[in-house]
Amino acid sequence: MRVVGFLKFYLILITLLILGMSFFSFSTEQKVLLFLIASLISPTLFRELLRLRGVRKGDLVLVSYSHKNEFGTLLQKELGKALTSGKVGDVIEVELVGKLAKGEVRSVGGFIFPPEVNLLYYEEMPAERRREV
Fold first, then answer.
1. pLDDT of 95-106, one tens digit each?
2. Alpha-carbon distance 58 to 119, whole Å?
3. In the prediction, which pLDDT does 125 show?
4. Closest CA relative to residue 55, chosen from 7, 91, 12
5. What would the DSSP string read from start to end of the chain?
């Protein structure tokens, strides 16, 4: 899912690099070195871009919570939809299988996994709210 976003980011980065190189003259070795450096730092730059962006309304999020049963404590993760925006440490609203939940954003995710939200509490979503979402 985010792999496509990374590929778009990488293409934009390479395009900007090519545009920048058109204003200066570089040898072939220098051009190869610049492309190599851009390729190596692009995952780190993309991760920072995700951190700055945070979670936006409508993003898929991975909601993690634990519940106790007769076998002990079970950690469970489910996909939800962010109803409000936020960054790491903020509390956002999440739609989780017909329930309105509040959770703290723990991480912004990565290339494959969506942002992770730690569930604080949830309640049944009112019928009129369900129609809005």
1. 988 788 899 999
2. 17
3. 65
4. 91
5. -HHHHHHHHHHHHHHHHHHHHHTS---HHHHHHHHHHHHHHHHHHHHHHHHHH-B-TT-EEEEEEEEEETTEEEEEEEEEEESS-B-TT-EEEEEETTEEEEEEEEE---SSSPPEEEEEEEEEPPHHHHHH-
Dihedral angle sign, alpha carbons of residues 47, 51, 57, 63: positive
CA–CA separation, 73 and 71 (whole Å): 7
Give CA–CA dist 55/117, Å, rounded: 10
Helix axes 28-53, 2-22, angle to 10 degrees: 140
DSSP line for 59-97:
-EEEEEEEEEETTEEEEEEEEEEESS-B-TT-EEEEEET
pTM value is 0.74
Q: 77 with 62: CB under 8 angstroms?
A: yes
User: Which domains are delineated in the chain?
Assistant: 2-53 (no CATH), 60-132 (2.30.30)
